[in-house]
Amino acid sequence: xxxxxxxxxxxxxxxxxxxxxxxxxxxxxxxxxxxxxxxxxxxxxxxxxxxxxxxxxxxxxxxxxxxxxxxxxxxxxxxxxxxxxxxxxxxxxxxxxxxxxxxxxxxxxxxxxxxxxxxxxxxxxxxxxxxxxxxxxxxxxxxxxxxxxxxxxxxxxxxxxxxxxxxxxxxxxxxxxxxxxxxxxxxxxxxxxxxxxxxxxxxxxxxxxxxxxxxxxxxxxxxxxxxxxxxxxxxxxxxxxxxxxxxxxxxxxxxxxxxxxxxxxxxxxxxxxxxxxxxxxxxxxxxxxxxxxxxxxxxxxxxx
Length: 304
Description:
- There is one protein chain.
- This protein has 13 helices and five strands.
- It has helices spanning 4-13, 33-44, 71-96, 101-105, 120-137, 142-151, 159-163, 170-178, 183-191, 206-225, 239-252, 259-268, 279-297; strands spanning 18-23, 47-50, 56-64, 112-114, 118-119.
- The strands form two sheets. Strands 1-3-2 form a three-stranded antiparallel beta sheet. Strands 4-5 form a two-stranded antiparallel sheet.
- Strand 2 (47-50) and strand 3 form a beta hairpin.
- Helix 6 (142-151) crosses helix 10 (206-225) and helix 8 (170-178) packs antiparallel against helix 9.
- The longest helix is centred in the first third of the chain and has 26 residues, at 71-96.
- The radius of gyration is 22 Å and the shape is globular.
């Protein structure tokens, strides 16, 4: 499977590319494929291979910079180096499963979200309130939305996500399934960060859509509430991307959601005294500006 970013990187690393196929122990396939693929990609610059059903198989393609007289030696060398990476991923996965996401929840109090806004634990409690409120308006399951929100960031404390930060949400979903959480909850945990970039998939599930909106809305309202909006090219909390994400989910999934009411829900999840009095107006204006720029990109004029 050719990952465009990896292809570009490998192309820049070699002058005389020779593709070779290596193998790893099929026992490692018990580990979620996302973790194995990331280990191959980031550490070894290898391409993964799937069967015709899209399932990962225990082979990989590495690109050598020479045409060796004995390619088997180059393959063996790559197999020898890739094995400990896979073993690490397996060890992290097995170790992480021993502690449930719920058991990790309280430990999020030690993880700072932002100095003035408290810990990641404070954030998930706010997101849970926003999620249940939005779920009520959309006649979705309040219990599933609240549960997904509370467990949404617990995987940040796992060994696997510490090693591979790109797997946040994805590993949370695997661990939620292992813990016996409802499918709606585990699916939502995986979908909470979508869309991660322009053109990325939107959340598929209803609970996932609500969690994604709530999480992004909390970040926007919180930062505007302490007078730290994005300035020029500086946007450390990716508020612009979050705003576009919220709008795309609401518009493209045709959700009957009043944006101003949702912003008020996000404000009321806070200790309101800590927030700037014009938070609601600023957050709404910010979302509206992103809405205009999105439609301008689509060729729709500002007047419309």
